[in-house]
Amino acid sequence: MNIRKPSVEFATALFLMCLALALLCVPVSAQIVSRAEYYIDVDPGEGNGTPVQASDGSFNSATEKLSQTVSTAGLLPGWHYLYVRARDDAGNWGSPIRTMFEIREAARTIQTAQYRIDGGSWQNLNVLNSPISGRKLLRSGDIPTAGLSAGRHLVEVKLADNHGTPSRIWQMPVNVYYALTLTGAEYQVSYQDSYEADGNWTALPANDGAYDGREEPFKSAIDTSQYIEQARYFVWARAIDSRGQKSDPTRIVVETGNVRWVLFQTDGTPGATLTGTTPQMVTPGADCTPVTANPPAGRHFVKWTKEGADYSTSNPLTVTSVAEDMTLIAHFAPWTNASIWMLY
Predict the structure, then answer these.
(1) What is the dihedral of CA 263, 268, 269, 270, to 10 degrees?
(2) CA–CA dist 316, 280 (Å, integer)
(3) Where are the alpha helices (DSSP H) in the chain?
(4) Distance from CA of residue 259 to its chain's centroid?
(5) pLDDT at residue 5 in the model
(6) pLDDT: which is higher, 217 or 162
(7) Closest CA to 83 of 93, 98, 68
(8) pLDDT tens readout for residues 130-143
């Protein structure tokens, strides 16, 4: 039996493929061809191959043209051999005829993709037949993070391709931040340059009537009539976010305008200093806090002057019943021999 061998090449693997054979079978003797079969790579034994049909539908002559579709499902990529043989009506099998063909590896695509967060259960991702890599998948934003608490989390991804080959497990730490909105604001008034975190705070309404954004202007009328005599006071305002957390207060300094300023200075003597608050802002008729003039070594305090005129020799000095703005200058003089002798 002679069989004409076709030239066959396979371009994909692991999918059902068809090989069209046009085989001319000629028996060794003048017997009638009664059967034909094929097998791939490994001989299963005569009569145990896959049957091949005659092209005209029946084996009834000494020469038969064969036609058969061959499945290559399950074959690994690489070169393979297709064997075809025929049997005559006396039960004699001819020698098989061999044809070589190649299974080429198909392009790899993702068949399955899964992720997990913080070591939890693996969840499926719908990225089938995609050339995306695990690294790109981690950065694609396709992994849901809804419901995660704010903070640092570990995201892991694993893939399997259309060949069933598993990938390595990719890992990437991610930080989850709250999408915060403002839910309120409040203020507190203080006579001192400080506030009471747990003190009494008054709500501030949003300018548009609702706190629903990340930034909100607010406007409120604050009754300052009770602070007029204080001359200066401080308004502290802070915001409240959707977590219930409160911001650091912002300070607003308010001056009523009905104030007097008292400035204390030295006469420029090197090393001379003042102890106390300067300048001081007080309401009309109020008293200043004490200020002390400190002479340097070898000198002593002499007096305070105001606009060049003597004002006081008190040290420390407490200015009382302030009626106007003023500048007071501390004067110093060196010790003399006479004054030193008088000390003894």
Answers:
(1) 110
(2) 15
(3) 134-139, 337-343
(4) 53
(5) 29
(6) 217
(7) 98
(8) 555 555 665 555 67
Task: Say if residues 66 and 84 touch (Cβ distance below 8 Å).
Answer: yes
Asked: is 260-338 a CATH 2.60.40 domain? The reply is yes
Residue 244's CB is within 10 A of a number of other CB atoms, namely 8
What per-residue string of b and e applies to 60-95 under the rule 16 or more CB within 10 Å gives b?
eeeebebebebebeebeeeebebbbbbbbeeeeebe
Place of tokens 């912002």: 250
- DSSP assignment string, 277-322: -SSEEE-TTPPPPPBEEE--TTEEEEEEEETTEEEE--SSB---S-
The answer to whether 33 and 61 are in contact (CB under 8 A) is yes
Cα–Cα distance, 85 to 51 (Å, whole number): 10
Q: Do the beta carbons of residue 29 and residue 48 sit within 8 Å?
A: no
Average pLDDT of span 320-336:
92
296-326: b (≥16 Cβ within 10 Å) or e? eeebebbbbbeeeeebeeebebebeebeeeb
User: Taking the chain, what is the end-to-end CA distance rounded to the nearest angstrom?
Assistant: 147
Question: One fold for both 23-103 and 260-338?
Answer: yes
C-alpha span between 145 and 290 (Å, rounded): 63
Boundaries of every domain in the chain = 23-103, 110-176, 182-255, 260-338
Token representation of residue 229:
């005599």
CATH class, domain 23-103, is mainly beta
Give the residue from 174, 172, 5, 221 showing the smallest Cα distance to 101: 5
